[in-house]
Amino acid sequence: MTQSSAGLTVQSLACARGRRVLFEQLDMTLMPGQAVRVTGDNGRGKTTLLRTLAGLRLPHAGRVCWAGRDVHTEDAFADGDLLYLGHENALNPDLTAVENLTALRALHGCRGDIRAGLQRFGVEATADRPCRTLSAGQRRRSALARLCLDGARLWLLDEPAAALDAAARQVLGDVIGAHVAAGGLALFTTHEALEIPQTPVRSLTL
Ligand SMILES: Nc1ncnc2c1ncn2[C@@H]1O[C@H](COP(=O)(O)OP(=O)(O)OP(=O)(O)O)[C@@H](O)[C@H]1O
Hints:
Pfam families: ABC_tran. Residues 8-206 form the ABC transporter domain. Keywords: ATP-binding, Cytochrome c-type biogenesis, Membrane, Nucleotide-binding, Translocase, Transport. It comes from Spectribacter hydrogenoxidans. The chain folds into 2 domains: 1-81 and 154-206, Rossmann fold (3-Layer(aba) Sandwich); 92-151, no CATH class. It has a 5-stranded parallel β-sheet with strand order 6-7-8-3-9, sandwiched between helices. The chain has a 4-stranded antiparallel β-sheet with strand order 2-1-4-5, covered by helices on one side. It contains 5 helices and 9 strands. By secondary structure, the chain is α/β, with parallel strands linked by helices. The longest helix is centred in the last third of the chain and has 16 residues, at 166-181. It has helices at 46-53, 97-108, 114-120, 136-144, 166-181, and strands spanning 8-17, 20-30, 35-39, 61-66, 69-70, 82-85, 154-157, 185-189, 201-205. The model has no long low-confidence stretch (mean pLDDT 93). Strand 1 and strand 2 form a beta hairpin. The structure holds adenosine-5'-triphosphate.
């Protein structure tokens, strides 16, 4: 594998909603050990971009490749390559955080200690309560505990810091920093200040 084919490459990408083009001519490369922060006003297309990078939406124009393979026309992501965390927490409200993460772990075939992940994000005390009884920040922290389980190389995180207090934002920054330092790739959107210690983070503004 050549160096240029080892990561995520975006070429002349345009995304649209209906007839409205949100952005165009976007070129970007994200390589192992790199992080990108995507910013932009509400409605500029950050979520649309992440869903397109994940292969969940077709681009209006251009290409997105993972390890040299087109994510929209080829089976580019192998099991365990991608972790996509959307705006929503994707937690079943009737299940506990432990039950939700157990299901996710089985679905994605990943390993990792669920309770240790919840502890890292400071929600071990609410780990066995149905998620519908948790506050917005506790739900987000519980969903983020998934980052501690997953061995995926590419993290696409949509507003991971939403609803988090300063302490949880710091943990999130540390977890992303450790992932990138270990050779992972991370691209995230954020409206909040999110420090990623000892990690150069490039900015992409839509
Ligand atoms: N289901 C939809 N149908 C039609 N248009 C949509 C739909 N979802 C989003 N849009 C439009 O697409 C544009 C981009 O939305 P997107 O969610 O990607 O923006 P964003 O930058 O992530 O916004 P925010 O910061 O508010 O989360 C917005 O102007 C929005 O109105």
